[in-house]
Amino acid sequence: RRVLFRSDAIVFLDRDYNFTFLNRRAQEIISMGLDLTGKNLFETFPAVLYPGSPYVENYRRSMDDGLPGEFEAFYPEPLNVWLRVQSYPTDDGIIIFFRDFTAEKLDRETLQRKTDEAERQHAELETIYRTAPIGLALFDTQDYRYLRLNDHQAAFFGLTPEQIVGRTLTEMAPIPGLQALFDQVRDGGAVA
Description:
Elements: E1 9-14, E2 19-22, H1 24-30, H2 41-44, H3 54-65, E3 69-75, E4 81-90, E5 93-100, H4 102-131, E6 137-139, E7 146-149, H5 151-156, H6 161-164, H7 169-172, H8 178-186
């Protein structure tokens, strides 16, 4: 059974695909200030007519085969909206529930782009870490525990990175004044 949401737009179409009812939300999303009652869906919204159109496929399935349909699709100018649509057969035609999820879709695409960029940058950093011809290490700023290091840095101690991670700098290199030097760098001081 379908759960109706307050944000759902609802449209009834008769057997000739003419609008017989639009709720207020449907009017806000698709009417463009016009009274669509009695108008034909395909004449009013010709952009739904294209090869493989999920609008046509699902509406005809509901109208002709008596089966529900569900899809997401973009409707171009003048609406420019992403719609999440469900269609159901009725005795007199079909009922269509739809929701504008353009903002959600754009947010998801933006998040995906940022995720892809972060993954690309991470891969670049991993490549630099693995292939750098010098020793690289990352420490915490409290007691200078090794958080990660590359093979070149670990080789300096004759160990693997896994054997060093978690140990402190002064444990690995007990050199007088080394921690003070690192404190100076951490605090933004110049190193002479």
